[in-house]
Amino acid sequence: DNYRREFGKHARTRSGKWINQGRTSSDLAREDSMNSNTSQQQPNGPNAGDGGADERTPLVTNAASSLGNMGNLHGITHNDAGKPYYEDERAWVRWPMNFLHLTWQTLSSNYVNVLLVFVPAGIVLGAMDMDPTAVFVVNFMAIVPLAALLSFATEELSAKLGQTIGGLMNATFGNAVELIVSIVALRKGEIRIVQSSMLGSILSNILLVLGCCFIASGVRRDESRFNETVASTMSSLMAVAATSLIIPATLYASLTKSEESADKNILFLSRGTAIIMLILYCLYLYFQLKSHAQLFDAEAQEGNEGGEAEEPQILGPVPAGICLVIVTVLVAVCAEYLVDS
Fold first, then answer.
1. How far is CA 189 from the centre of its chain?
2. Residue 109 to residues 123, 142, 169, 312, Cα–Cα distance (Å)
3. Membrane-spanning regions, if any (predicted)?
4. If exposure means fewest CB atoms within 10 Å of the residue's CB, which of 79, 102, 185, 194 is most exposed?
């Protein structure tokens, strides 16, 4: 009855004439008179308190209209049962919404992902053979967020695969960007780019990264503790790697460049050294991840004395793997245009 009475009144107001809903105009007039008398009997009008509300009282007031607009977002992202759409029982709704949800969670995980706008721009500039300087700068800026996404996807995937396989994933994809750029440069005969990239990476890790770690540790605590075995192993590996790089370079600089046989011998020595270093790296991974993994676990436990909470995992194994493949392909494309420029 309230609905019919209200509908009849509003319909009459909008159209300027009575609309017959099974009642005469006198019936509607009598009902309006009764409603006005009822409202006059209330001490503070029809809106005083919850008991004075009738069908004309708005459910959402003007003061709360902004909150009501925020509530509309809940209706957009959730179904009628109150569940998010990416948890909907209908597969044709759940899959695309789950994809959008994971994409947003991934992109919002790091502020540097704002630079992802340079990825399509760099690919377009490179495909159109634009100014080499612009191609280099834009693709360089594009690789920065891609490297962050590659690290993010690797960490998400390694967290689900266990300690050994996860550590191997981190070791493999930890320097994937440098590896991809070096492979592309080698294919194009840009030997100096590869050498400069290697030297820059080595100097950055043993000076800049190590120095920043010392500063950060010194700010937080008065004294830092290190695992003797781990530190000794790392120092030995660094000495072997440095020697392997120094010996071929020293021989090449000391010998006369006119001797063809000497160059061939140095090249043979350099390639043999590279093979030995690869074998040592594989043995080191076995030492770290399998045979003496407890040493590195103890080091991690000592470093977490502050009781820092673990970050929640965002991606599962399948989404993280897909993200890893897509980002790797994009890095390869941007590196191609970067080296070409």
1. 34
2. 24, 17, 20, 11
3. 110-127, 134-153, 165-186, 198-217, 237-255, 267-287, 318-339
4. 79
Q: What is the DSSP letter of 12?
A: H
- Mark out the alpha helices in the chain (DSSP H runs): 2-15, 25-41, 65-77, 91-107, 118-127, 132-160, 163-173, 176-187, 191-203, 210-220, 228-254, 260-286, 293-303, 317-340
| Mean pLDDT (whole number) for 46-58 | 50
CA dihedral 145, 149, 154, 156 (to 10 degrees): 140
Q: How far apart are CA 220 and CA 239, in angstroms?
A: 30
Calculate helix-pair angle for 118-127, 132-160, nearest 10 degrees.
130
Contact 137, 337 (CB under 8 A): no
pLDDT, residue 137, reads 93
DSSP string, 57-114: S-SS-GGGHHHHHHHHHHHHHB-TTS-BGGG-S-HHHHHHHHHHHHHHHHHTT-GGGG
Q: pLDDT at residue 106 above 80?
A: no
pLDDT digits (tens, 9 = 90+) for 190-235: 888 888 888 888 889 889 998 999 999 899 888 888 778 888 888 8
pTM value is 0.61
Q: List the structure tokens of 126.
A: 């490179």
* 251: CB partners within 8 A, 6+ apart: 266, 269
* Exposure b/e, 21-43, CB count within 10 A at least 16 = b: eeeeeeebeebeeebeeeeeeee
> Cβ(292)–Cβ(232) under 8 Å?
no
**Residue whose structure tokens are 């890893």:** 324
Q: Provide the mean pLDDT of the chain.
A: 74
Nearest Cα neighbor of 150 from 164, 124, 170 is 170
